[in-house]
Amino acid sequence: MKYKSVVATGRGSSDVLKIVEHDLRAPAAGEERVRIVAGGVCQDDIAARVGKRPFLPKIPFVPGYSIVGVVDAIGAGVSDVAAGDRVAALTVFGGYAEYIYLSPEMLVHVPIDLDPAEVAPLILNYLVAYQVLHRMAQVKANDRVLLIGASGGVGTALLQLGRLINLKMYGLASSSKHAALIKLGAIPIDYRSQDFVEVLRRAEPDGLDAVFNGMAEDYLRRGMAVLRRGGTLVHYGGPESLARFILFLAEFIWLNVAPDGKAIKGYGTHRVDFQLLKEDWSKLFDLLEAGQIKPIIAAKFPILEAARANQLLESGNVVGNVVLLALELLYNYSAGLQLSTS
Predict the structure, then answer these.
(1) Are the beta carbons of 223 and 37 closer than 8 angstroms?
(2) pTM of the prediction?
(3) 124 vs 171: CA distance, rounded Å
(4) What are residue 32's phi and psi, to 5 degrees?
(5) How would you classify the pairing of strands 227-235 and 263-266?
(6) Are 28 and 49 within 8 A, CB to CB?
(7) 297, 320 in Cβ contact below 8 A?
(8) Is 332 helix (H, G, I), strand (E, B) or coil?
(9) pLDDT tens across 5-60, in order?
């Protein structure tokens, strides 16, 4: 029996993404085979493919940072999961595929009644948003915050989660996306035509409580400039090269030692204990089940059309999330049928 994945066969445009067929083997001892039913497309997938990260996977590789799936088979010695369980994982690589082999300690159980298409953005984008808000910046009700990169998957997650605790939120985005930001409770600022430092100094002369930067490190100094004394900037975007990574570290250290009473923190999911990831996924599943959050999904593509999904995300015209789905799920959505992934 065979299965297919989407493989980056070189560095460059989405044209380097090719469909490759593999043998479907039995899981080895201590691992399980997961049939992927949903996954996200994120900027890290694109950056790894293009070559804009300081530490890159070797070519060829399968992109795909996060997945939702069903355990299809288990290897010897696996007891934490069983065939048929709905699970999710931060894979970092390997998610653009019909099947993936993982170890049990990477998995979180997903409530069976949740829509996999809506769960997929929770595994990375909403997790990042929740953790930078509550674990890094430790925001409080009615805090004033700025979101740099407010219209993407993490940005819209920040807006939905921030609205739950009544944050006053300013969001940087191009003017075409302002209506969407307003709908999500943000005060939009056009980063192309407005100086956001000047705008915020007029609007918030006492400074902001927190700034969340998901874009280039070029925004660090200006982000720090709009913080109040005692405020925190959290940077969660990845540097584009080793040289820029070194420059970012130097800037990061300098801004942290500057005697202005402000803090700057860096965030990455790889630096968070897995138990904390599971705790926060559980909270996000509860919020989704209760209808308190609802991921904005800009587009859904079949898993094996990940190249087209990449093209859309790279266009810069996306508000929210781009999701990959197994063909049976896409059929169910289009036909209006009851979801089934078992």
Answers:
(1) no
(2) 0.94
(3) 20
(4) -130, 155
(5) parallel
(6) no
(7) yes
(8) helix
(9) 999 999 999 999 999 999 999 999 999 999 999 999 999 999 999 999 888 999 99
CA gyration radius, the chain = 20
In whole angstroms, give the CA distance from residue 252 to residue 5: 38
Q: Which pair of tokens denotes residue 302? A: 């079949």
Q: In sequence order, which residues have a C-beta less than 8 Å from that of residue 254 and are 6 or more positions away? A: none
**What whole-number distance in Å separates Cα of residue 207 and Cα of residue 142?**
14
Joined together, the tokens standing for residue 79 give 């007891």
Q: Which domains does the chain have, with CATH numbers?
A: 2-110+296-335 (3.90.180.10), 129-270 (3.40.50.720)
How far apart are the C-alpha atoms of 231 and 102, rounded to whole Å? 40
Q: Are 208 and 148 in contact (CB under 8 A)?
A: no
- Annotate 39-54 with b (16+ C-beta within 10 A) or e (fewer): bbbbbbbbbbbbebbe
Q: How far apart are CA 195 and CA 258, in angstroms?
A: 24
- How many residues make up the chain in this entry? 342
